[in-house]
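[Automated response] Your request has been received and processed.

Submitted sequence:
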Amino acid sequence: MNKDQFKNLLAVNLRLLNPQVTDRLRRKGKVGAELTNKLKMQFLLNGLIFFLVYGTVMLPINLAEYPNMFTYYVVLFVLLAISQSISGIYSVFFAGKDLNNYLPLPFKQKEIFLSKVTVVALNVIPFIFPLFIAFFSTAWHAGIMIPIALLLSLIVFCIILTIILFACAIIVFALTKTSIFRKHQKMVMNGLMVITLVIAMAGILLVNNSDYMAGKHQAISPIMLPLFKTFVEPTSIISLLNWIGLIIVLLILGFVLKRSILPHLSSQLTSINSQMLSNSGKRKHVDRKNLNAILDAYNRQVLKESNILLQVLVNSVALPLIFIISFAFTQIPSDLPLKWVGVFFVGGLAFSAFITNSTTVVANMISLDRGSLEFVNSLPISMKQYLKRKFLLGYIFQIVINLALIIVMIIVWKLNLYLSLSMILSTIWGTYLISLYYFSRDYRLRITNWTNVTELFNRGGGNMAIVLKMLIVMILSVGIIILYSFLIGTGKPAIIVNGIVAFLIIVLSFIVVEHYRQKFWQKFE
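Generated structure:
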């Protein structure tokens, strides 16, 4: 492999990974190798931030004495990595628009493949970085020196991530060779993602039901024992067998990729992309005289063509659902009195802010138009009406997702009627307020020449920013809900406390709605 060519491909993909960061650095005069190095430093800095954020939560836990908790973290984040990798590989390889740019250039198949897989890895790492923290915490608490523990954890983390990426690539590329995929591409990929999510949720539920928090030195499952021993007793026979097993699996997957995927990479990608274009060209003619109906039909078609629904399924559903299942086993009394209705209303608002992020449909509806937005702007139709139809479709789509997840929580927690209605109503309203922010953000950060939807999701900081925002929202929400619950539960007049909170919610809601009415919607009148 030509290292210089691979570095050039990687430099291009780094620029595409975080387009807003790239533009900001270019405005500061950074170009060429200096720009690439700055982008690399940005990634390393984000990694350090994640280490500090996750470390403060996970490092105090002595996972060496809680082997079942170690199992929980490994299963949780490995399943999440699989889900994210399958989605990312499909988006970067098959849903992207940059393949034709590579074909006339003297790049080897292996270089193109590895550069694109590296992009997928950079998007997956923020979501599974706690796995590295779990490895390091286990080794550190087991008495291994910090430099050795860091090196050991980093090597195992990289090997496991590479195994997951290679395995997912083989699965996705194997599927694309089937006749059913060529006829029903979206159905097959959506089906694969649903199966992945179901397996992930089943695995997490199984681990949760094993009561992993109970007791020190609890027996660990035979499947996880070799990996656990690698960090607790790195010189043991079981640890050595684990190293041999990981390396053998990695070599086998690498051999399969080299023999069955890489030799036919360009031809397979060209064939699939051509088939996609052919399928996307087929339209059913439907007579529509109403302008709103025409706009709605166009917006739905844009969603289909951009493969964004598959990405949304993974990015805005998988991770939040894992958090829900992880924390849903907290015992909440089902007979709470009516005075607690405000606490659950605030909980629903917090849930909406946690779930709705830059990977949702409503946060990308405008940029999905690519260059068509300027064409629409030249037509004798109201741009405000056009954007409102876009916002409505994105909002409805997000409401369906959020309410489905809320209903899962209600069922798991067995909430009574008035607490359930409180969470449902607050989710509807909270999603509207957060959607206003992300829709206007999409217009402000809009990109018209994106190659795959990952570039849209990564605007404003990338996956690092998404996870950090989720953590910040979660920490602030937990603090507010704990304080609110304390005031309600310690005998303070509930009607006064709930009245003050209701007043604050109404005032803040009015401020948010009025802000976006004046600063965003009025621009199109």
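Summary generated for your ticket: The chain has 21 helices and no strands. The mean pLDDT is 79.
If you did not submit this request, please reply to this message.
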